[in-house]
Amino acid sequence: MTAETATTAPGPRALARQRRLASAARFWREYRTHRAGVFGLAALVLFALVALTAPWTVGSDVQSVTDAPGRPLESPSARFPLGTDQFGRGLLGLVIWGSRVSLLVGLLAAVLSVAIGALIGITAGHFRGWYATVMMRITDWFLVMPTLVLAIALATVLSRSLGTIVLAIGVTTWPTTARLVRAQTLAVESRPYIERAKALGGGHGHIMARHVLPNVMPLVLAQTTLIISSAILAEATLAFLGLGDPTVVSWGGLLQDAREAGAVSSGDWWYLVPPGIAIAVVALAFTLCGRAVESVLNPRLGVSR
After folding, report:
1. Residue 187: which residues within 8 A CB-CB, separation 6 or more?
2. Please, what is the angle between helix 213-240 and helix 147-157, to 10°?
3. Using an 8 Å Cβ cutoff, are 181 and 216 in contact?
4. Which residues contact 1 (CB under 8 A, 6 or more apart)?
5. Fewer CB atoms inside 10 A, N or C side of the chain?
6. SS3 call for 90
7. 182 CB contacts (<8 Å, ≥6 apart)?
8. Residue 70: helix, strand or coil by DSSP?
9. Which of 162, 23, 66 is nearest to 106 (CA)?
10. What is the pLDDT of residue 1?
11. What CA–CA distance (Å, rounded) separates 212 from 220?
């Protein structure tokens, strides 16, 4: 090899970057063939833009009770397209502002849940023995216990805040991820290159971080997109039950306010329908994206397009 060829050849980092870019491009080409996944992604991008631009489009003063611009429970009109709540605040602005809290809590809770599940799944699949037995029995216990009941218990004991909601959802929804990641870890560690890595002196941390984790990451990514929808629904449920932070506006909190104001019995549908539709659409969008990601990463699943 000449000196000129050696200097023009890409280095290891450049080659790794090129492989990552090619893999991402291949993933996007496959993902685009799933019409439902593209629809879900477009809906999520729209909701994310709405949430990020809320401080400029509606402003934080939309939450103010003392400076409410309308009368309580006004029906939809040109001034208030979605009507007003029990304090006279415009529901359109509240739904837009509430998207920030609902999406943030759902995302953080899903990340916490997947992180716990991935950690337990990888370590249980790697170490096995008594440690795996104990971890899997704990996982089984969480699986058979009603998730919502455990989340309600935690949210009741701890202080009412967004951090409590994230913690309550995250520590009660990880068992499914742990089971899936452990099964994938066992499959990865049965491959010959793991034995070679051990023979060359690779320690437990090296095996799990450099060989197992990259192979289970596609599964973790797909599981995250699926859990976010469940986390958003769980946050809305806890807020509807009055266990959320009363000082912030969320979609579940709006439904709780509507229930307290008697919107169901009085027929004030505009108080209930907008936040309910927002919750349903976001949960459906994340589910569609998760199913598409699963199908791309594992075509044998046979998820319809």
Report:
1. none
2. 70
3. yes
4. none
5. N
6. strand
7. 120, 121, 122, 124, 125, 132, 136
8. coil
9. 162
10. 47
11. 12
DSSP 100-138: HHHHHHHHHHHHHHHHHHHHHHHHHHHH-HHHHHHHHHH
Confidence bin at 299 (pLDDT 50/70/90): low
118: confidence class by pLDDT, cuts 50, 70, 90: very high
- Of 213, 223, 199, 206, whose CA–CA distance to 125 is shortest? 213
Q: Which amino acid is at 65?
A: V
Q: Tokens 């959802």 identify what position?
A: 169
- The CA distance from 91 to 82, in Å, is 6
Span 265-289, pLDDT tens digits = 888 888 889 999 999 999 899 889 8
Q: Give the global pTM.
A: 0.82
Given a contact cutoff of 8 angstroms between Cβ atoms, the answer to whether 152 and 238 are in contact is yes
What's the full length of the chain, in residues? 305
Tell me the chain's radius of gyration from C-alpha atoms.
24
- 3-class DSSP state for residue 84? strand
Q: How far apart are CA 140 and CA 124, in angstroms?
A: 13
Q: What are phi and psi for residue 9, nearest 5 degrees? A: -70, 135
What is the spatial distance between Cα 14 and Cα 11, in angstroms, rounded to a whole number?
A: 5
Structure tokens at 148: 């919502």
Q: Can you tell me the distance from the alpha carbon of 176 to that of 120, in angstroms, rounded to the nearest whole number? A: 11
Determine the average pLDDT of the residues in 3-29. 71
Phi, psi of 146 (to 5 degrees): -60, 120
Q: Would the CA dihedral through 130, 151, 163, 58 be positive or negative?
A: positive
Q: CB–CB of 197/207 below 8 Å? A: yes
Phi, psi of 84 (to 5 degrees): -125, 165
What does the block give as tokens for 19?
């492989």
